C-alpha cells in the first residue's frame, strides 16, 4: 500500500502489487520565506495528467503478477475526513521559527494501493510515520516531494504561491518514476483545506510563510 503525505504519481508500466503500499503525506511547517500568491478560495489552473483517471471506476486491466483487477480511483476531495487535534501546540513567535523544526497541528494523508487506487483523504493530528525496518523505501526506492508556500496578505486572506506549478512538476515527476497517477487540482483542493485548518499557524511578519511538503511513503 502507498500513502501520500501529500500527493500521488503516474504509472508508466505494469507493476507488481506492492508489499507495502505508498501513501501521500502533507505536513505543514512555518518558516521564514517571502512569497506572493493567489487566494485559497480562487482555484488556480492545475496541470492534469495526460490520461486523467475516472474516480472510483475500474481501469479494466489486470495485474500480470497477481491476477487482480487493477482499479484506478483518483484522489477524491469529497471523501475528505477531518480529525482535529485535542492537544493543540503553542504557536511560537515569528522570531523563533526554525525551518524544518516548527510544525503545525495537522497533516494530510491519502492512502493508495494497486487494487483500489486512492482511498479517502484525511486531515489528522500531526504525528510520526510508522515504517517497518524492511520498508523498501529505506533501501531501494526513489521518491519525490514538492515545497508549497502559503501566507496571509494584508487583507488577512490565506494564499498559496503558484500551486498549479507545484502540481505540474509533481505529476511529471510521478510519471517519470512510475508512481500512482492523480489529478493535481484535486490534491491542491485538499492542501488548501489543510492550510485552512491550520491557518492560525501562518506567520504574518515580512519574509515569513507556511510551507506544505507533499511526498509519498510506504504504509
TrEMBL record:
Its GO CC terms? mitochondrion
Q: Where is this region: Disordered?
A: 41-60
Please list the cofactors this protein needs. Answer: pyridoxal 5'-phosphate
Molecular functions (GO terms) = branched-chain-amino-acid transaminase activity
| Gene3D superfamilies to which the protein is assigned, alphabetical | 3.30.470.10
Magnesium as UniProt keyword: no
Which biological processes are named by the entry's GO terms?
A: L-leucine biosynthetic process; L-valine biosynthetic process
Coiled-coil spans in chain: none
| Swiss-Prot/TrEMBL keywords | Pyridoxal phosphate
Similarity annotation: Belongs to the class-IV pyridoxal-phosphate-dependent aminotransferase family.
Q: What is this protein called?
A: SPOSA6832_04709-mRNA-1:cds
**UniProt source species:** Sporidiobolus salmonicolor
Gene behind this chain?
Answer: SPOSA6832_04709
